[in-house]
Amino acid sequence: MSDKILKINDLAVEYRNKGKYLRVLQDINLELDSGEILALVGESGSGKSTLGKTILRLLPDSARIAEGSIFFKGEDICNFSEKKFNDQIRGQEMAMVIQNPQNALNPVFKVGTQILDVLYFKSKKQKSRKELKKEAIE
Question: Most exposed of 35, 46, 115, 123 (fewest Cβ within 10 Å)?
Answer without folding.
Answer: 35
